[in-house]
Amino acid sequence: MSCASPGSGGSAAAGGAAPALSVVIPALEAAGTLPAVLRALQAGAAALDPETIVVDGGSQDGTPELAESLGARAIAAPRGRGPQLMAGAAAARGGWLLFLHADTVPEPGWAEAVARFMAEAPAGRAGYFRFALDDDGPAAKRLERMVAWRCRALGLPYGDQGLLIAREHYDRVGGFRPLALMEDVDLVRRIGRRNLRALPAAARTSARRYRRDGYLARPARNLLCLGLYFAGLPPRLIARLYG
Predict the structure, then answer these.
(1) What stretch of H or E contains 144?
(2) Residue-level pLDDT at 56
(3) CATH number of 58's domain
(4) Core-most of 16, 37, 39, 122, by most CB within 10 Å?
């Protein structure tokens, strides 16, 4: 799974000059959602030509093979977003890193927004996409507004909004840690609220969990998990409640 295929990131992974941008995607049983993510990234290849790395945590549905057939480089890592993100960052060659979930699709305009941020952002700043769901119902729109408020007021974008950060700054703040949950919150807190900026582009995430658990119950559970994390409960225990 360590060889890159032609396509998005293929030439960069094969050798030569280091790419400007590496996209790191942790994945587990993601064959149903990953193709849309990789195709969206390929749509921005002309502007950025990113290296794309899918870090598989032990899928049985052919996720690594699918990733390579669609032009990404697939590597293996211990299961868990924290360990997988760490492994992807370690394997990445880009001067900038963009971390995405395997069910989070950057919408048109993402590449231009990322390129502009990379060119203009002051040192030490990191960017994130506007949160959007693949559901146009009123409950989904209310949740999107709540997330926008959370990001503005609290400086807490989650992993399903992506994270764009310079490699140098990622290393300086200590990168991702091998946490079972809250690896995204842990990192953005070290980056700091004042150093986080919303990108003028959206990333659309699957609403599967919200449809399954409810648009009130699921955010309430997420908020409880966040509160327990801030209270000092170990992430491995919070993960049991998160579901």
Answers:
(1) helix 138-154
(2) 98
(3) 3.90.550.10
(4) 37
* Residue-number span of the structural domain to which 170 is assigned: 10-209
> Distances in Å between the alpha carbon of 85 and those of 99, 138, 139, 140, 203?
8, 33, 31, 28, 18
Query: Looking at the domain assignment, is residue 61 inside a domain?
Result: yes
In terms of phi and psi (left: phi > 0; alpha: psi -120 to 50; beta: otherwise), the region of 214 is: left
On whether residue 62 sits in a domain, the answer given is yes
127 vs 97: CA distance, rounded Å: 11
Residue 98 pairs in a beta bridge with 23, 164
pLDDT in tens, 102-134: 999 999 999 999 999 999 998 899 999 999 999
Average pLDDT of the chain to the nearest whole number: 91
pLDDT of the residue at 15: 54
CA distance 146 to 123: 29
Q: If residue 132 lies in a helix (H) or strand (E), which one and from where to where? A: strand 126-133
* pLDDT at position 9: 43
Block residue for tokens 């990191």:
126
DSSP 76-124: E--SSHHHHHHHHHHH---SEEEE--TTEEEPTTHHHHHHHHHHHPPTT
